[in-house]
Specification:
heterotrimer; A alpha/beta (482); B alpha+beta (69); C alpha/beta (351); B: 69 residues; alpha+beta; Alpha-Beta Plaits; 2 helices; globular; C: alpha/beta; Rossmann fold; 2 domains; seven-stranded mixed sheet; 12 helices; 15 strands; 42% helix; 20% strand; binds thiamine diphosphate; binds iron/sulfur cluster
């Protein structure tokens, strides 16, 4: 423990003058006489000075009486929303791992409105230091009940005394947080007699040192006097901390694994990656095969394919559509793909819409397809009527035991699932279909489709089988005599 | 010899220093300071330099302790 | 340029990284989750921070911390999560923090559904949080714009020190389209004059939205309003789709505008002189252009379509000032208007 200095005076990590304070008393705090906040401020300020970290330190002022922490500390400062300091601290620390981030919070702030924020920050082991001021009451708003208010304690909102069966028990934050694995150090201190003050001083320093050492989350809970809201003299308030509060909130170290942790083990340094690498990282560096699309040899109806693909989830519907859209793009055309979305997704059905066009595509929705691919019976029943006259219907006879009824369309019945099974996997039924689409419409080139699969298919081992399936689909369509 | 200095215009007269001083060498002044409080004052001798009044004082600049003067 | 067929939601993240985004904080929600998935995948590879927050409340506050520290940061969500972010959004507007927020709108109110919607317009454009603040709001209508406008959002957020929203919908987020990705942004603005970065140079800085003194609070508000005025002067963006000589002016943004392009074309085939103004910035709103159209003798009527109960239409009416009829056609709850519905509306307006 650091030696005491010969002269103990206002630490240099406090501003010389509190210029942000709007009154004429810019050497003095805004706190009431005898308020614990001021005492804790001084201990923190002394540690910041002694550790030489004021340039690196960011103090977070909460909502509560300590809302103006930033009046006092000559450090980087944030004022934040009620209870959110641990989340803000997380945002700062994760992006500035070398900053020393100190979250300062009252009991309404930390234990009530910000309860989940502190719990989660502790559980993530944020490498921050939290000073938690437990004064068993809401000071700033005029003495309402806090989660830490003692049983029987009268406040403005528990005027007959807090009752366990109505408001629950005083919340023991140190005990609670110390059950988590991530926190490195949790201690409860008080600011009463000399012995406790010296322990408090030590705890404050230890909690900041833990962060400097990159050992993770630490929290110091301070039983603190609020003479004003308690309606006591400062000296009586101090006695009340010792006689009443400490019974409910015993002092002591609740968690300390600092010695077990390596220096830097919870320091989350950021790696610098040159931006020249970004395209590679984002998968944009690959060179896919591209061709210039040509529609001259394509039957007119298929020159701007509007494809509706429908079936069960798991039949590779979405992938089928993506492959078509990807291939269309690689022919230099515009393309859109949208999955069935919203209410239609229920019941395991899946469908997607693909448009490919040399013109900009307005609505990506395919309401009147010129190519309909029906992979199961409900899809045929539902969408056959929507197909444009002269359009192409490909339906999966392996799964559909009815026949289409329209006579003004081109129909290709295709036992896609059975063919896929023969090829070796039910999962390539969608590729059999693609083969048939290629053969029938002539709009997309096969080698571009095959190359597109590299971009679309996640499991590369399926690619040879996919190619086989596409060939079989093409062959079937070529030889089919309707 | 140790001693303390109370900057009376920065003292809020809370009495915590007086209460904590083990050798009872701080007292309340009769004077009213510019914050409107009776500030603490050093009795002039007997300080052991224990520093407790400094640490218990909530105000940044109300008390200075000279431990070896 | 690198081209890829990609979902709008994913394009957001690739665009964000190329714009130099340093951190992503978010909480999962359909139909915005792919944004988080992509951030989780790519950010660590680029040495950037991805962290799943405990809630949207926390996510936006983490952004507050990171942005206050001077880095580029973003979050994304949808309706229920955006409502929770309102606290942090108001604080960020007050503290003038450049945060990029993506709202992939879904059906509401309440839990609603995951289908596309545009019912958060009022919440995002008009307020939602407390206080006299404005967000810059960009409304992409393609996967390409999901990338481009996200990148622009970072630029504008920094330029004005203001939270900036990319307001899109589930449809645009889920749709895949070819996107050309630009080169990464090389230079980011210096923020040492206001950000608190945990170093000597920025030690003096304070990130803050509290002004106890009403006069000072008013002064800060006046400063904010001046900033918003500058945005209105400099940042209005819209697309002119066949407006020249048009008699019936369609107005739609996002997915609805995609449907409207086609409806305009169909209407023209039927001899209706239709055109569309597509706001790309919702704040600042292209009200000057709309007023100009309203004053043109050629223009007969306006047709506004939204996937909502009629929210943007209020802004159109304010701009038109009663000079011409303003018709509205909306679908709600996740239903996307169809081309034939809009065509019918154009026909009605042309009568
Ligand atoms: C969202 C929100 N709700 C309520 C308030 C009002 N408020 C200000 S301070 C405070 C209580 C603070 O109490 P505590 O955290 O115990 O700190 P103390 O004042 O006792 O130091 C409340 C409820 C607020 N500012 N923001
Ligand atoms: S109300 Fe209580 S906590 Fe607030 S400044 Fe006064 S004594 Fe301190
Ligand atoms: S330093 Fe100790 S002995 Fe001296 S005045 Fe202060 S409390 Fe009393
Ligand atoms: S503790 Fe400080 S403020 Fe209180 S009486 Fe003593 S010198 Fe004054």
């Amino acid at each position: 423990m650091a030696q005491l200095k010969d002269v103990l005076k206002k630490p240099s990590s406090f501003y010389d003058e509190f210029l942000r304070k709007p009154d004429n008393y810019q050497q003095d705090t805004h706190y009431c006489p005898g308020c614990g906040h001021g005492i804790l401020h001084k201990l923190i300020a002394e540690a910041i000075e002694d550790f030489g970290i004021k340039d690196r330190t960011i103090m977070i002022s909460p909502v509560g009486c300590s809302v103006f922490v930033y009046y006092y500390f000559d450090t980087g400062n944030f004022q934040v929303a009620h209870g959110r300091a641990p989340a803000v601290a997380t945002g700062i620390k994760r992006t500035h791992p070398d900053a020393i981030v100190i979250s300062y919070q009252g009991d309404g702030d930390l234990a009530a409105i910000g309860g989940n924020n502190i719990l989660q920050a502790a559980n993530r082991g944020e490498n921050i230091t939290v000073f938690f001021v437990n004064n068993a009451i809401y000071g700033m708003t005029g003495g309402q009940m806090a989660p830490t208010t003692l049983l029987g304690q009268k406040t403005m909102t528990s005027p007959y005394g807090r009752k366990a069966t109505w408001e629950g028990y005083p919340m023991k934050v140190s005990e609670l947080l110390s059950t988590l694995e991530a926190p490195a150090y949790v201690e409860r201190i008080a600011l009463t007699n000399g012995k406790n003050l010296m322990k408090a001083r030590k705890a404050v320093r230890k909690a900041i040192q833990a962060q400097i050492d990159g050992k993770g989350f630490s929290l110091v809970e301070t039983l603190s006097m609020c003479p004003s809201a308690w309606r006591m003299t400062p000296v009586d308030a101090k006695k009340w901390v010792e006689e009443a509060m400490m019974k409910t909130f015993p002092l002591g170290v609740y968690k300390d694994v600092l010695d077990e942790r390596e220096v830097g083990s919870w320091h989350r340094a950021l790696e610098t990656v040159p931006i020249e690498k970004y395209h590679e990282i984002l998968g944009l560096a690959h060179e896919g095969m591209e061709v210039e699309g040509d529609v001259e040899s394509v039957p007119k109806i298929f020159r701007n394919p509007k494809v509706l693909i429908a079936g069960f989830g798991g039949q590779g519907i979405l992938l089928l559509g993506q492959t078509l859209a990807e291939t269309g793009m690689r022919h230099g055309w515009n393309s859109t793909w949208i999955p069935s979305y919203g209410p239609e997704m229920r019941g395991g059905t899946a469908n997607c819409h693909v448009k490919i066009s040399s013109d900009p595509i307005g609505s990506p929705v395919v309401s009147e397809p010129n190519i309909l691919i029906a992979m199961n019976k409900p899809s045929l029943e539902r969408f056959e009527k929507d197909l444009a006259p002269g359009g192409l219907l490909i339906y999966n006879t392996s799964m559909i035991d009815i026949k289409p009824t329209r006579t003004d369309i081109e129909i290709l019945p295709l036992p896609a699932t059975e063919m896929a099974d023969e090829i070796g996997s039910l999962r390539v039924a969608n590729m059999v279909i693609i083969g048939a689409v290629l053969e029938k419409t002539k709009i997309l080139q096969k080698d571009v489709v095959l190359d597109s699969l590299n971009a679309v298919v996640k499991h590369k081992k399926f690619i040879p089988m996919n190619s086989d399936a596409i060939n079989k689909g093409m062959e079937y369509a070529r030889n089919y005599k309707g | 010899m140790a001693r303390i200095e109370v900057h009376k215009d920065h003292c809020k007269g809370c009495g915590l220093c007086i209460d904590i001083c083990p050798v009872n060498v701080i007292e309340t002044s009769k004077e009213i300071n510019n914050l409107g409080y009776h500030p603490a004052q050093y009795k002039g001798e007997g300080c052991t330099g224990c520093t407790l009044c400094f640490y218990t004082c909530p105000e940044p600049d109300a008390i200075v302790v000279y431990r070896k003067d | 340029m690198a081209k890829e067929l990609i979902k709008g939601n994913e394009a957001v993240i690739k665009g964000a990284l190329l714009a130099g985004c340093d951190a992503y904080f978010g909480y999962p929600i359909t139909p915005a989750s792919e944004i988080a998935h992509a951030a989780a995948k790519y950010f660590p590879l680029a040495g950037k921070v991805f962290l799943q927050a405990e809630s949207e409340i926390a996510a936006i506050q983490m952004c507050y911390g990171a942005a206050g520290g001077g880095v580029r940061v973003m979050t994304a969500s949808s309706g229920p999560g955006i409502s929770l972010k309102m606290e942090g959004i108001s604080y960020s507007a007050g503290s003038e923090l450049p945060i990029v927020i993506v709202d992939v709108m879904r059906g509401g109110p309440g839990l609603g559904n995951i289908a596309p919607s545009q019912a958060d317009y009022n919440q995002i454009v008009k307020g939602g949080g407390h206080g006299n603040y404005k967000l810059l709001v960009l409304a992409p209508n393609s996967a390409q714009e999901m990338c481009d406008l996200t990148m622009l959002a970072f630029e504008l957020a920094d330029k004005y020190r203001n939270p900036t929203v990319v307001l899109t919908d589930g449809f645009n987020g889920q749709m895949m389209e070819p996107v050309e990705f630009p080169e990464p942004v090389k230079k980011k603005p210096d923020k040492t004059d206001w950000a608190a970065m945990g170093d000597a140079k920025t030690r003096k800085n304070l990130i803050n939205s509290i002004y106890l003194d009403p006069e000072e609070m008013e002064e800060h508000n006046v400063h904010l309003q001046e900033k918003y005025k500058k945005m209105e002067q400099n940042e209005v963006r819209y697309e002119d789709y066949k407006l020249d000589g048009a008699e019936i002016i369609g107005i739609a943004y996002g997915t609805t505008s995609r449907v409207m392009y086609t409806a305009v074309d169909e209407a023209r085939k039927k001899g209706i002189n239709a055109g569309m103004l597509r706001p790309i910035t919702l704040f600042p709103f292209p009200k000057v252009k709309i007023r100009e159209l309203a004053e043109s003798s050629k223009v007969k009527a306006f047709l506004v379509s939204e996937m909502s109960n009629g929210q943007m239409v209020d802004d159109v009416r304010l701009a038109v000032e009663g000079k011409k009829p303003v018709n509205f056609f909306g679908r709600m709850g996740g239903v996307v208007p169809t081309v034939s519905e809009l065509l019918e509306q154009f026909e009605k307006a042309a009568k």
